[in-house]
Amino acid sequence: MKKYDAIVIGGGPAGLFAAINLSGGSRSVLILEKNQKPGKKLLLTGGGQCNLTHTGDVSELLKHYGDGAKFLKTALFSFSNTDLMHFFNKRKLKLITEEDGKVFPASKKAEDVLNVLLRECDKNGVEIECGTPVKHVEKSDDGFYIFTDIKKYLGKNLIIATGGMSYPKTGSTGDGYAFAKYFGHTINQVRPALTPLYVKDFVLKDLAGISFEDLCLSLWRDGKKVREFSGDVLITHRGISGPGVLNNSKYVDAGDVIKINFMNTNPERFRADFVETVAKNGGLTVKSILRKYPIPRRLADKILQLAGIPDEMTCANLKKEYRKRLVEMLTEFPIEVEKPGDFNVAMITKGGISLREVKPTSMESRLVKGLYFAGEILDIDGDTGGYNLQAAFSTGYLAARSILQNTHEIML
């Protein structure tokens, strides 16, 4: 049986990049991929346009990984967003940076990104066996034995880069968690992340397509406010989405209430301004006054309808109870979450292998020597905007570099 220097389970961005940085010279590297082709999920990222990474220095990037930032620090400094862009530019893949800092291939085709990775694997002699789902893994004095239905493989080192559970149709079905558990690793509870929120009896569904910049929202559970957040929000036919919602969806449970501040200002300040404006313009309709505020006309009309205020009602006839209801709906519009989107629509997975059991300086298991992890299988979830792909490349790179250092080899 051939003994590989390293075997990588999973042919996504983390696995491919780890193999690329491990390979070359006389080193033997094998990728085992369950799908018929590698990178199936990569082809879906950014709606198929592949938002590779995001601009900004590493310290700025780290702010977008929440509790995982400290763990990722070494990986991102070892292989930064600048390094990633240089990698692709050097291989003649032109990149573009949009105004919001997102970085894409100029072609806006994820396939072009995948092709660069596959060419590098081919050039460096990486073996890729597709249609080869791994069933079981074992550790012995010889190394790691990897079992499929028809064959077994042996590697000195093992990198598990099987991803999480989002987009299961791409093969991300949590296989790697079982392998990690076999080696004694803890799997923190997994749940969908970067997913839209579906709303119960959604009264704003006819406003689908309207978006808002940097709204303030609050999350309520059992009558208590548990979180405040802000960001861009999109109204959909079934609920709310947009970066601000996606980035915080991992904190939301079915039955929670989200209150939206459409005025994007302090509620008390808005109330005082609105009361004064209404008092000074008794002859004008409430509708005309409301349209002077910076909110979409369709939303203003909908709010009036929901508050039970007729189009022809003047400010002079606006009773206190109606005024209070109107202010509340504009600054604390309540929606009850029916459920967050499931793994079929979630971009990434929250949870995974406990970071306490993985060395942040190498991605090596603290429990099993020679075992490494990279990518979404780790309990890391970044914001939308290219941060999760960057983490996949950086952790894959660091795992590869660590293996080479452990074998006293020099990175090419």
Automatic annotation (TrEMBL):
Q: Where is the RsdA/BaiN/AoA(So)-like insert domain?
A: 191-346
| Entry-linked Pfam families | HI0933_like (PF03486), HI0933_like_1st (PF22780)
Domain (RsdA/BaiN/AoA(So)-like Rossmann fold-like): residue spans on this chain: 5-401
* Entry keyword set: FAD, Flavoprotein
Q: Which cofactor does it need?
A: FAD
The reply to whether Flavoprotein figures as a keyword in the UniProt entry is yes
Coiled-coil ranges per UniProt: none
Q: Is the keyword Flavoprotein assigned to this protein?
A: yes
PANTHER family for the chain: OS12G0638800 PROTEIN
| Protein's recorded name | NAD(P)/FAD-dependent oxidoreductase
Q: Which organism is it from?
A: Caldanaerobius fijiensis DSM 17918
